[in-house]
Amino acid sequence: MTVTLADVAARARVSPATVSRVLNGNYPVAASTRERVLRAVDELDYVLNGPASALAAATSDLVGVLVNDIADPFFGIMASAAQSAIGESATGRGGGEKLAVVCNTGGSPERELTYLTLLQRQRAAAVILMGGALEDPEHLAATAGKLTKLSEAGTRVVLCGRPPVPGDASAAALVFDNRSGARQLTEHLLGLGHRRIGYVAGPTDRTTTRHRLEGHREALAAAGVAEGPTVHGPYDRSSGHEATAELLARDPHLTAVVAANDTVALGVCAALRERGLSVPGDVSVAGFDDLPFSTDAVPSLTTVRLPLHEAGVRAGRLAMSTTEPPADGVETVPGELVVRGSTAAPRG
Amino acid sequence: MTVTLADVAARARVSPATVSRVLNGNYPVAASTRERVLRAVDELDYVLNGPASALAAATSDLVGVLVNDIADPFFGIMASAAQSAIGESATGRGGGEKLAVVCNTGGSPERELTYLTLLQRQRAAAVILMGGALEDPEHLAATAGKLTKLSEAGTRVVLCGRPPVPGDASAAALVFDNRSGARQLTEHLLGLGHRRIGYVAGPTDRTTTRHRLEGHREALAAAGVAEGPTVHGPYDRSSGHEATAELLARDPHLTAVVAANDTVALGVCAALRERGLSVPGDVSVAGFDDLPFSTDAVPSLTTVRLPLHEAGVRAGRLAMSTTEPPADGVETVPGELVVRGSTAAPRG
DNA sequence: CCCTCGATAGAAAGCGCTTTCTTTCCTGAG
DNA sequence: CTCAGGAAAGAAAGCGCTTTCTATCGAGGG
Questions:
Q1: Which CATH code of 3.40.50.720, 3.40.50.2300, 3.40.50.1980, 3.40.50.450 fits the domain covering B176-305?
Q2: Reported pTM
């Protein structure tokens, strides 16, 4: 029924071993033989049996990219970049083609663990975890354990946008400087003269949420300004939309709102507009990430640009590099304040 | 080093066969034995070797979801929906956990084929192709061939948002009614009184692009209105941005622009605004897809809503169903015109 | 009280590939 | 002309699991 290595070998009149060697290109094979084999492969339309090959070689060409929300361009951009970086590095064995696949955890710790196990099952060549982690000790420990197991089994582990695992130096980590970015953003608002600033934070117990919030508070504290109302919610537009009502209820005199990210900021703008408040005339709004649509928003969004594409590429490269992770392997990716039309000095 | 089935068997004092049966749950095993085995699995922290299992069983628990652009929420939403539908259907063997992974083709036919081969290698349980296809005969044939091979090898094939393969009835297909949606949209514009309508189309030689364009032309023809300028480009904001200049150069008196999708429409709006033209005061703009951000755009976007989430879920279910595809297996997903603020009657 | 049948568990044969260990064959040095 | 040495190809032993085919053990029925 299906064509196997042996069939190809028979047709090319060589041994299965030779065919394998031609396909993997890691052993000298005479040019004439190679050509004969390749022709047979072509004629029979042979496709390597991945599982068999992975079993025998004790490693597969699968690379898993775990993201919190695949529908969010924040992850889409990074994943896409990582995927192309991985695809390009055709260095490995078996023609080097790695199959980079992205897995959507939906932010659920259970699914994250499930995917990690599944990837472990497949003997994945590498795993990239993208996005903030849940700060629950129990889950943190479970994840750390899994990651250690994976490293031990030879799977490369890369963290992108989440802090390194304390006990484990085997994973390379790429962290965004959320704290400093958030601080700059709030400093910008303070510099404009804002003193009543609301904050729409991301989901509770997430590293990203906490770091951004801490940066915001640092700036406030440094300026001796009291913290305004804060509301938590998911990273989507409706979260920003709903939070705005709450924020305004808690302090009707807010002059600025900082959002967890650009998507949320858009929801905030919409809610403000619905209440007849103009941005930035009545209330200034700022986001985070600088997603592509932020430029086109009306008004265009003041935000902190994160080099998502570069970070993705970097993560992909780290996942591919066979070398050990750089000493202690934590690399910080800076954010850059981008001032646009959605922030201005408060009225009066 | 790594724990194998045999180790578990030894510890539970049963044969490897029994352990396998407990794990797969498809054969009667006495409760006491089962418990003993499960305990051993737990104590040894055993993880099934996927490749070995796939090799022996001649099938894996991998489901591939191919998308044209993972950074585009259009695909993100569908992929996310499909993935959860697949995750929920824990019906299969081996605990039923399927590993749904998304592969980013970037719209490149070569990468599409590469991923298909890679998935074929892995003996994927199912493959879902999302998004329009390239209309190149050669590539079409190559893809069709691959898909046939996959079906023959027992891989379920589902097409979502792309027309069924002519010769092959083994694949289930879900198609969006792009033509009719586009027709309604243009009819809406015509109804408002527009007669000079520009069109920013998607990439050439893509089914989605062609169908939407055809719907647009049908409406125009039915109303006896001459076709306005048309520009092709990718499905991103800059495409809309750049195309607008071209459109306006070809007809400075345009009163409306229809964009390939919402993202492109946003770029069009931005470009118009930069030239001092108001939307919809001077020029009406319409999009397609109704992505989440379209409601919040300023002005909010008139568009054609596609039930992306539902379609994704449907595709996921089809991929999981072990039953043969429904007779002829083509299911049409309708689009719904959503009129919002970006379209209005042309000026005087 | 023997035998048959149903319910469990074990034995063992692969699944298709990689890779070590050999063998073969040819080239060039002595 | 012989022999060492190296390049290229083959033989064969698994990799870890699934799954037929058997074997075993009780429990009823005759």
A1: 3.40.50.2300
A2: 0.92
